[in-house]
Structures are given as structure tokens and as C-alpha cells.
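Budget justification, computational time. The allocation requested in the original proposal was used primarily to generate C-alpha cells for proteins on the priority list. As evidence of use, we reproduce two of the resulting records. The first is shown immediately below.
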Amino acid sequence: MKLVHQTKLFTILLVLLLLVSGCANDANTTNQSAEASERSKSQSKQGGELTYALATSPDTLDPHRAGLAVAGRVFRNIFDNLVFQAKDNTIQPWLATEWTVSDDGKSYTFKLRKDVKFQDGTPFNAEAVKYSYDRIIDPKSKSGNAPGLLQPYVSSEVIDDYTIKINLATPSAAFLSNLSQNQLGIVSPTAAKRYGDQFGKHPVGTGPFKFVSWSEDADIHLVKNSDYNWGPPNVENKGKPNLNKLTFKIVPEEATRIGSIQSGQVLAAETVPPQNIASLKNDPKTQLLKVNTIGLPYTLFFNQRKAPWTDVKVRQAVQLAVDVDSIVKTLYLGTYHRAWSPLTPGIFGYDPSLEGSTKANIKKANQILDELGYKKGSDGIRVKDGKPFTLNYVDGSPNREKRNDIAVIIQQQLKKVGIKVEINITKDIATVIYKNADYDLYGNSQVNSDPNALRAIYHSRTPEEEAVFKGLTGASNPELDKLLEQGTIEANSGKREEIYKKAQQIIIKDAWIIPIYVFPYTVAASKTVKGLSFDSLGYPVFNDVRIDQ
């Protein structure tokens, strides 16, 4: 019995020894495989150049002056922010390491990183933060969307080199979220003072890439910031980029842009046209990356500064005459979703009850216009007080996301109710829309992280504000103003959500706008491109990108 027991014991020990040996061999094999994989990865990830085709040209690379989302896709790589907003809407440290909020919610005190410097070698500190935010609200800066995001900012106090106190006029539930947006990036005071109005052509920040050059309507060249070591929470690589160069090529023509990705002239291209999505999905050399942007959908705004657009019934008649479903299906082939609200799905406070609430009704639109005294002439165009009913539809150039095509379809649709649409395409949107307000209908969208974005668009504007930068509606509604003001300061999320739902309902009911589509940001890239991702707003992030050889 003793011998049997010893034999069994020996057998068990032998099996265990073999198992341990096998595990060790497996572990060694796994380790060797991992090491080989890591060696391969390290060989592919360092260096190289990514060429990225943009559908339109940025208006500026000065984040504080920018008005176009495409500009943010470039300058997001040049500038960093105090804080970062994750996809779950939590606010996380970035250039600021921590912060406290006063009991009354009207001041924020930020502690800043001490190891950061601007790309011109000057130090990042509290003075730089103060300079950046004061610059945004200075009328001389001619800022774009940034002042609306920074509201209700009043002033900053430098406590010490790496501590800053920010004072607000009122509490703001959106303030931290807005600080994460790229238009509020921190600029180099030295460079901004040096270049003045030309800073947008010589941008300097603390970001992972440094600006080199910009050839108008051709390309923008950036190179890696070798000193970078403070990446945001959403990237694996917190240090200097893997890429040596990042080049943005401006390719407005859809066919040329897609052809350039298929031919290998560029490695990635944005805004893939709907008609190309199926073929690119089947291309073994290409990958499709897609993310829905959040904020304000592509929306047509009535200019309520002048008749007849001051009359809600006229606006409602046009709203009823425009068949948005037909437009979206015809142009985007099921790849875009129709918008129903001033906000996009996915953003806090979005009201899904508005979906399906408005439908095209030509008969009712004609009835309203008849009742208002607009009579059809022999040419089919309505006339009132001897004046033909014409609508000045302004759109930008080039034909971004087929927006010019939307204008043509609406021109055809409104002709059915006796409205003559004159389409005016311009490259100078800043002057025509935001300086002169010379339009009846104009379309725009905005990437944003918080429903407080509605306030900058739909709240009444003072004459002083209008003199600097015309609003998109030119309208005023005291009830809506009050809701938007409450939404800014309301700390209770449930109450805040209801406030924004009421605001959306007023805007749609009173026909201030015609929402058209929610933009899915779609990128075609070579399969050699690894690590390309997107932030919570849909902007591409290049910190982790590497090119497989």
C-alpha cells in the first residue's frame, strides 16, 4: 500500500511538473509572441506622415475667432484645454489638475500643471489662461463662437503662477463642459500679441502638433511637438505623437477626395459622400470610421429682422411647404438621419417627443398664404401689395455635405406654393450673414457639448452684440429668453432637462427654424492607419495614430 501511495504521489508530481513546464513554455511562447508584436508595433508606430483630406477650408486657425467645425479639426491638434469632457459627460483634468467651485457657483479656482510649455518655448501658466479668456471677450478680438461658450465669464484673478480664479456673472451648469471645447483652447500670449490679427495664420498653443504652414485652399502642415507630455484622458499615448507630420489637404470636390483615398494620394479623407459608402465598405484596402456629431443639427434659420419673416404664420407656411423627409432621403440615401429639433439626439436635454411632430403639407401651406393675402399671379408667384413673394436663400461655398443641393430642392418645393427662391452662394459668409444679415433663409450647424449652446443662437441679443456679430435669428421671445437663462444656472439635472425640452418646443412651434439633418462624421482611411479615434464631439484625435508599413 505504501509503494502504491508513493507511486501515485510520484505520478502526480510528474504530471504537475509537466504542467508547470508546459505553462512555462506557453508563457514563454506568449511572451515571445507579445514581444514580437510589440516590436512590430513599435517599428510601425514611430515616424511617418498622415495626409488627411478635408472637405472645406478652415476660416481661421485661431480657436477664439473660428466659426467653422472644420477649423476645429485642425486646431484641436495645436491647442489644449483646461479640462476634458469624456463620452459619459464627466469632466476630467487636462491642463488643470484640479478645481474647486465657490458656494454660490460664481467662481472656479483651478490648479494648473507645472510641466507644460507653449510650442514657442514660453511657459504655460495662470497668466496665459487669463490672457486667453480675456482675449475672447474683448470686442477687438472679433471672436467667433468662443464668447458664447465662455459666457457668463467676467474676469480672472491670478492667485500664483499655477493657480487661477475665474469669476462668472451667474452660476453656470455648462461652464466646465464648455471649457473643454476646442474654441476655448489656451493660446500663447507671446505669439498672439506678436501676430495680432494674423494669429490665425501663425497659431501657437501647447498641443501635440506644431503649426508649420498654410497654403490657402491647398494644404496645412503640422509637425510633432517633441516636448509634448500631457495628453488628454482619452488617448493612450500621453507623450509626443507617433507621427512626425500631420498634413491636411483641402479637397472640396467629393469625387476627387474619394479618388485620392482610393489611389493612396492621401491616407484618410473626411465626409464620405453617401453614394460612396457601399463601395468603400467593400474595398479591402480601406476602412470606414463613423461617429455622430452632437450639438445643433444642420438647420435653416429664418431672418426675423424683416418682413414677412416677422410673421409666425408665414414661417409656418414655409415650414409646411418644405418636405424634409424627401430632401434627406434623396440626397443622403439613408446614411443621414432627419433632424427634428434645435438639438441633436445624444446631447443632454434632447426632446424625442418632437420626432414626427412636423410633416410637409402643401395644401395647408397654400391655405395659410391665401388667408394672409398672398395671391398667385399668372406666373404662379404670389404677390402682396404689388410685391412678388421672393425668398433670399444664402448658402456657403463649396457644396459642403450637399448643402447647395438642399437649396435647389427647396427652391423647387417652395415654387409649388408660389414662393420664388433666389439662391445666393457665397464664400464670404462672415460678411453676408454675420455682419450684414443679408438673407431670408440660411443654414448652419454647430458641434457642441451642452444644450446651453441654444442660448447663443436663440436668446435675444442686445444692439451692442448685434453690432459686433449678428445672430442667426434676429428674433426675441421673453419666455424663451427666461428658459435659456434658467437652463444656464439650474443645477438639478432633471429640472434642467425639462427647461430645455420646453425651449425646443417653443422654437419648433413658432417656426424659427427648419431642422434638416444630423451629421454623421464619416472618415475613409487606409487600413495602414491605426489608432485614429474621435472625441466626445466627433473631432478626430491623432495622438495615438501610427502608420503600418
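The second record produced under the same allocation is shown here.
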Amino acid sequence: MSEPELVASGVEQAPFILILCEGPELRVAAANAAARAVAPERKMVGRPLSEVFDDLAGQQWVDLYGQVYRTGEPVTGQQWRAHLTGPDGTVHELYADFSINPWRHPDGTIRGVIGSGVDVTALVRARLDAEQQNADLQQRYRRTRDVVTTLQRELLPRGLPVLPGAQIAASYLLADADTAAGGDWFDAIARPDGTVALVVGDVVGHGVTASGVMGQLRAVLHDRLDDGAGIAEALAAVDRIARRQSAARAATVCVAVLDPADGTLTYCTAGHPAPLVLPTGGGSRHLPVTGGAPLGTGSAFDVRTDRLGPGDVLLLYSDGIVERPGRSAADGTAELARTAEHAAGGRALHEPGAAPADRVCTQTVELLVRATGHSDDITLLAAQLVEAVPGLDLRLPVELSSLSAARRELGDWLTAAGAGDDDTFVLQHALGELVTNAIEHAGPQDDPVLLRAAVGPDGCLHAEVVDRGRWRPPVHHPDRGRGLAMTSQLVDTLHVERTATGTTATVGHRLSRPPRLLTGERAAAAPATSADALTVDEDAGGVRVSGPLDAATAPVLQRDLLRRSRGGTVAAAVDLSGVTHLASAGVAALHAVADRHRQQRTTLRLHAADGTPAAHVLGLVALPYSPPPGA
């Protein structure tokens, strides 16, 4: 075998990925077995790299090949994540260490690009698993994360408004998770006239001083905009603060007021980068700056107007995403526009369930920062014009078996409306209690119970539960009354009106969804739980309960627990961490079982993991519990 044949054979069998691309179109000249195994059943040789790996568009890989061909400078990376689509349509996640180098003619001119890489997916997953199992590392990270997260939650909005015609999302990435929070801030304010004010600002510096100044500026600007002030008037108020405080001078801010009803946009860039618009059909455009200078510099605050179309995304950002190491402001701005466009159009990382505004705020940061790192805080705030979700209108049979379906339909509607998990949890519990009361107080001959809900232009949910049953004063019992008490604690407002022809319970609750405080940790998916079936399992540690515990299932659990504890004569432990819904009927059942154990002078221990629905409700009703053993 000749030397060229030996080389070709060795390259073909090499345990690393090798792809040779030739010419400005980067046509694949050769690909070894390891490369073909990454993308099976794809014809490679002779085709442009962008066609072979069209599913990587928006993930920067093909762009890097083009960059090396244009500049002649090699590029390397470690543990980059990629999503590849298999022949059967499934998406596979891959991590790779790679090196992309120029391929030159004998005279030194660029012939093409040589890309080589090693699949380190197993190594990365093993490392992640090891970190997950390392208690000391977890504890140290948790302490750091909790301190920074707590501080950030105090300085920044706790939630973003949920509006009928606009989807709002935000993300914030600290420059260094071990330092004090910086001076970036964002805000989104649902205004009385149905518009939403969007704000991104940046105070010079980091640490306590910058954070304190940021908090003052945000509070004043929020108050003025929430009170209906115009952009120039609101900025003039914070400008007066900046003139009096040297630490606030030269702070920059962009304020945009969007009307979801018709897409009208009014904005001002006070020394801050102008917003980016991502039209629903693709492409991007930066709005013109308004000419205003930073706060405290004596500038006027002129405003400009624009208009968004249905589905368009508006992105406000701080300069940390543009001024990254090794990037000029012009290059960083162009990269931001290109990457945000891919994320908005779903052409970057594979997250089919994420809304465009969410993808823009999270994927854009990950894709840009992994290539260069970042030296400053990064803030992104996005708003997309969406079609308003019609109100919910359910007619529920007067039977307890309809509770599970009602919770499921309410949850689906809240998710479609853009509500966060916390609000969904609260409203499923609160409205579930009201529906339970209506069913219990109505007779079988009465009309169905009505559950109606809608989100107003101010981001407040208004819901009502109506029954046409004849109100029957309940017989006094120590377990009664918990449902309305729980509901009043969970929602903002509750009003119950009883008449001779029925009862109407009205609930008001301002919806919000949390922004993303990024720390480099990818959120783990929550385990799937059943929304319909109650299960009770027993092991050496006691009884584990999973599923919904409501008026329909509570009697079943009460009988089961008393049977297992022989009427309360044997000590028992019940883990409620898997309970997906704990209604007042479930609380009453647990109280009844606990009372039986007290009568028999035996112990009943209730357990619920922190953050679970059961822990939340048990804390509200003052029923003693503790974390599961070993948690």
C-alpha cells in the first residue's frame, strides 16, 4: 500500500471527526467515518457545508467555517453544544471539542477549511452527573447561587406582566456570579391605558454603589411610567436624580412604550443602544437612535415612533451583549442581530415549546457568550405581539368527578395565555376551591357550575365561579371554611355574592411570569406527573402519595391511611412530595387522620419537599410537616 493510501486509510479510521471543505462555498471535499457517523444517511461530498448541515443554521458552526476561510485564522472551542436532527426526525444533543483551520495551497493561498473535532458528549454528561452527585460542590454552588439570586430578585422585577396581546420575556446574566450585582436593570410595566412600558438601563460600575443607584432609578422610573407619565416626563424625573448623585451620572436607559392593540411604538434612547426589531417573516432592523445623551448630562429626551406587525419581536438590550471580548461594537451588533433572528425564527437550538421572546432572551445569550465569554452584565428584554387568547368559559357538571378536568382545562388555558407556573398553581388551587364549594352547595337538579376567566389589558386576571343552586347554610364543622380561607390567601381579591338564585364568587389576580436570571446552569426538566390519578405506595420509609388530593380523592386517601395505620393505632409517616394538587378537602382528610392518631397516642409524621405544592399549602394551613428523610 502506497503512502497516500496509508494516510487515507488512517484518516478514514481515525477516532475523531474530520471534514475538509473547499472553495468559498465550502463544498465538502472529504469526510471520514467518524464525521459520517455524526450525521448518518446524509450525502456530504460535493455539497456545500451549509446544505449538509442545514439543521445547524443559527448555531454558529457553519459560520465559523466561513470565518476561517475569510480570515485564514484558526478557531478552537471546547464542549460546544449542538442539536442535530436524525434521519427519523429526532433531535440529538452533541458536545464537541473542535479545531477549524485553514487549508492552504502550496503557495500559501486559502484552498478551503479543515475541521476536526472530538465527540465529548459522554465526557460532559459524566462530568455533569458527577457534579450532580457531589454534595460539597452542590452545596457551595447553591450557597453562591442563592445569595446572588436573592440579591438580584430584590433589585430587579420579580415578574413580568402577562398581557392579552404581548408576550414579554427577559434574561439577566451577571458578569461574575461571585461578585456583587451590577448596574444593569430592566422593567416591564403594564399601564392603565393598556400599553406596556419596557425599560433597559445601565449604571456605570458594579458593586453596592452601582446597585443602590440602579434601584433608585428603577423605582422612580417605574412609578412615573406606572402612573401614566409620558416617556420624556418619566426620564426627566430620573434625570434630576442623576444630576444630584455623581454615581448616577452617565447612566444610560432605553424606554419603549408599546400598544399591543395596534403595534404602535414610542421610544427614547438616552445614550443607550437602540432596540432591535425581529419581523415575523425573518430579517432584523435596528430602530434609529433618538439622539438623547446619558442621564445627568443636560440632554433633552426626544422620542420617536415606529410600529410592530403581528408576530414581530422587539428586543431591548444592554451593551454587555454587544461589547464582548474580541468583538468591536459593530461586529457585536451584527452578531446580535443575526443570532437573535435565528433564535426568534426557531432556527437555533431546538426548543419547540419555547415562545419566540423566550428563545431570543436565552438562546441569544448562550450562543454569543460561549464563543467569546463576557466581561459585563448582560440584560435582554423582549416583547412579541401575539394574538390574544380568548377567555375561558367552562360549564361543569354538578359532580366532584369534574374537578380534575376543570383543573386541567384551566391549566392549559393559563399556559396558553402566558401565565407562569406560580400563578397557574395558585389559580388552580383557588378556583378549584370555589368550584368545589359550588358543586357541594348545588343540588343534582341544578344547572351546571360556570367557570369564566379572562385577562384584562392591565395584566390582571378576572375570574368568576357561578352556580344556580339554592344556597344552604352549612352545618358548623371545624373542617369547614378552609376552602374560602385558602382562596383569600392565594389570590389578590375575592368577593362572594349570595342570592336566592345562586352564588357568584369573583377573583382578581395580577398575572406575572418570572424573568430568567442566568447563571450558566441549564434548567433541568421537571419530572412528569399525572394530573388525574391518585396513587399511594408503601415502602420501608412509610407511605408515599402522588397525584391530586381534592374533594374527589381525599376520602379515598383518608380511608387508605387509616386502614394502613390500623385506625391510627400504629405510628405512620406520609410523604406528600408527589401530590400535584392539595385542596382544602385533602387538608381536612389529613387533619382527620392526624386527630385519630392523637386519640390513639401514636405519631403521624407528614413530609413534603421544599417547593412542592403540598409544602406550599401545608404552610398556609399551619399543618406541621418536615422535609422527607435524607432530603
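A brief technical remark on that second record: Residues 135-155 form the longest helix (21 residues).
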